[in-house]
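re the bet — no i am not wrong, look at it urself. input seq straight from the record:
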Amino acid sequence: MKYASIDIGTNTLRLLVAEVDSRGALKPLIYDRAITRLGGGYTEGHGIDGGSAERTLSALEAFKEVLTGEAVESVVATATSVVRRARNRDRFLREIEERTGIRAEVISGEEEARLSLIGVLSVLNDTSGRMLVVDIGGGSTEFIAAEGGALLGSWSMEMGVVHLTEDYLKNDPPEERELHSMEASVSGVLRELKARMEAAHMEPSLYGGGGGSTGARLVGTAGTITTLAALDQDLDVYDRDKINNYTLTRERVAELYRGLAGITMREREKILSLEKGREDLIIPGSAIVFLTMEAFGFGEMTVSDAGLLEGIIIDGVRKGAETEQTEV
């Protein structure tokens, strides 16, 4: 049977069509994405910008054409960070349904984290032990503490690559003072994250790279991190098999961050392994990755190409199976 999931994110719109076999294993068939920057031009007073909404609606119409040609059992569309916050979100969701027939659901940061963890775990070679999972988005970044594959805590932090770019990076290439201000903002959010972990009676050091029996693994998902993995391997053509379970070192992330921040947008556009539309966003994204590794004492990060999209489908199939068992 075929299932489809759609992620309406602050920066990227993504579609997955997959088959799920009798054992619950997921086989991706179609994977499509479009950087529409839905959060571009967002303000608390107005909400989602009209031009940003139109780009996203047009991309959703293209996704609908793809789905029309597929015998899909169900389609689940979720909207995350910027739509959660937008005062005009109801109008935007109505427009989606009117123009595409797709009914999108706004999910909480906690639900996003739960579903993302399911997706991440589906492709990791090793799901044992403690791990801190980082999902960097356009409007927020989700941090998930897990052990033995079980979610123990999650925190949605208002720190996304679109807003950091618009708030801090005004010059091309960015000036040192702009980078320092952006880094200070990210570091402040990471301090807040640790305080929130402590308030939830979760010791941050247990989810850091302390090594030995007390240490955890750092796992990263979403576009910034998979792009860094592609850059580190100099992939001219993106290959998910080479991204999943790839190891990024803190040293290489620092080198990539400084190297990308030191060249112009035009020069970044010529790098084949840098996803088109992410040429400016990769700078704050790299900063989040590096500063997270530094703050939690990690020397390396395991990369997962899977996340929310896969989690939506796997979770839906599991719930369907449980319902059938209950009815029997």
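see?? Residues 256 and 286 are 8 Å apart (CA to CA). told u. also The chain has two domains: 2-109, 125-305. so pay up
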